[in-house]
Amino acid sequence: MALKLGANSINKLYLGSTAINKAYLGAGILFSGGFSPADVFGATDIGLFNRIHPDNLFTDTNGTINATVGDAVAYIEDLSGNENHRIQATVSRRPTLQQDPNGAYKLVYDGVDDFIEVTYSGVISTPLSNVNVARKAPNMRMSIETTDTSSLRLSNETATDGTLTFYAKDGGGANSGAKGIPIPLEIEILILGTVWAQENSLYRINGVQNTGVFDPGSNSGTSGYRSAANNKNPPTDYTVLEEYGAIQIDRELTTEQFEKIEDYFRLEVGIAHSGVFSPASLFAGGQQGLLFKPER
Question: Strands (DSSP E) along 41-178, which ranges?
Fold first, then answer.
């Protein structure tokens, strides 16, 4: 969904000598300033950035043969600079690259035995930020810790009724304040931002931050990233999932960084920006008045 001139992606737009940071076609983002989520990773930041696109997906575990639509994917390239590439060596357990009617690419997990993961070289500690992009559905696991070590459990998922559950406890069920969180009915593709802290954590749903915090339970961090399966080794339970992208980073992202990442994924998957407003819309019902914009 990137803006292109022929086969070439456009990374910068100008109006005269002024750089344009965002351009819209109706409510949809047409251009977002050439920003990449990889830009938020500093030299010491640990984590991963997965873009679901044939340029960054491979059918072999060495990351040399690019995937095309219909292929089983063995390797998801990490674009954060950390070399945390997600790999699935078993052919039958690989998700499939598919494409939406609007051109957005996604990885589809069958809910039978598909998953793909990376184990980091060490534990990354809270605060920890995630952005997960997936088609909204009940019973889907967006991100899961790769080991069943009790002190490292961390889980973003939906329940059977489609509500969100966040889990980071040593044992027992999810805390009451970290489950049953509704997703607005109009959302089809979920862009879920989370900041995991020891107790008080926050979440964002398609650019809208919650007014409070949730308590997922004590958690010291995570040692890896897995989609569509539980944290047992090997997994013992799997979920259907349509994944469009993911980020995990070992610090709290700023609101501005979240917004830029969310805009990037909106552009990638072709969904409208919920916050677009024009003063001209006040006159949509034929009301009389004046709209004046001074020159600067």
Answer: 47-51, 57-58, 75-76, 86-87, 96-99, 105-110, 116-124, 128-135, 141-144, 155-158, 164-167
Angle formed at CA 95 by CA 93 and CA 101, multiple of 5 degrees: 160
The residue with tokens 């292109």 is 4
Helices (H), the chain: 255-269
81-95 pLDDT, tens per residue?
Answer: 999 999 999 999 999
Question: What DSSP string runs through 206-244?
Answer: TTEE-SS-B-------EEEEEESB-SSSS-S-B-EEEEE
Give the integer Cα–Cα distance in Å for 284 and 215: 43
CATH numbers and ranges of domains, the chain: 1-34 (no CATH), 38-273 (2.60.120.200)
Tens of pLDDT, residues 150-190: 888 889 999 999 999 999 888 888 889 899 999 999 999 99
For residue 57, the Cα-to-chain-centroid distance in whole angstroms is 16
